[in-house]
Design a protein that fits this description.
CATH class of the largest domain: Mainly Beta
Number of strands: 13
Shape: elongated
CATH superfamily of the largest domain: Ribosomal Protein L25, Chain P
Distance between the termini: 50 Å
Strand content: 35-45%
Strand order of the largest sheet: 1-3-2-6-5-4
Structural class: alpha+beta
Largest sheet: 6 strands, mixed, barrel
Order of helices and strands: EHEEHEEEEHEEEEEEH
Length: 199
């Protein structure tokens, strides 16, 4: 069952200073989209943090502006203050439910790679997510990647190897790889690498 997330927001006068919002524990935000007029907003800081921790960038969120009709959005960008390490700005993208959209979906890794178990290798992951193009209703929360087929040091998986429904999803970064390499200080892994280099 798809989880539902809601964020309440208020329209914001762009002339209002950031310090005023900070005093009210508010975060400045903006929502925009192909068929949506860009609108400045303010959000409750604790609410956006709570929702973002669960929804991330790959779950649709109902954005309720001034108590109106919910707008289906994705969190497109989230700014973090360099000193306080708090959310200081949020960009929302209003999706058209009838048109495909590009979205970054995180990987979830399952299984145990024999190369890790037997040779002391570690998973060297070049990408933590995959860029998909699909209808908003089809956006998955995560993409599972089974690493149990990685048997030897230097074995690799490409996102092209993932079993995705091509009728729903188009992979936009086909050259991404999930690779295995040896961990430093592991004798078994070093030996395996030496054997591979000599072959």
């Amino acid at each position: 069952m798809t989880k539902e997330f809601t964020i309440n927001a208020e329209k914001r006068d762009s002339a209002v200073k950031r310090s005023v919002l900070e005093d009210e524990r508010k975060v400045p935000a903006v929502v925009y989209g192909a068929n949506f007029e860009s609108t400045a907003l303010s959000l409750d800081a604790s609410e956006i943090l709570r929702v973002y921790r669960k929804a991330g960038t790959s779950n649709l969120v109902d954005l309720v502006i001034d108590g109106g009709k919910p707008v289906k959005v994705l969190v497109k960008d989230l700014g973090i203050h360099p000193v306080r390490h708090e959310i200081d700005h949020v960009d929302f993208y209003a999706v058209d439910m009838k048109k495909p959209t590009d979205v970054l979906v995180p990987f979830t890794f399952t299984g145990v790679a024999p190369a890790v178990k037997n040779y002391g290798a570690v998973l060297a992951i070049s990408h933590e997510n995959i860029l998909l193009r699909c209808l908003p209703a089809d956006i998955p929360a995560t993409i599972e990647v089974d690493v149990s087929g990685l048997k030897e040091v230097q074995d690799s998986l490409s996102v092209a190897d993932l079993n995705l429904d091509e009728s729903k999803f188009r992979i936009m970064n086909l050259d991404s790889k999930i690779t295995i390499c040896a961990a430093a200080g592991r004798k078994g892994a070093a030996k395996k690498l030496k054997e591979a280099a000599a072959a």
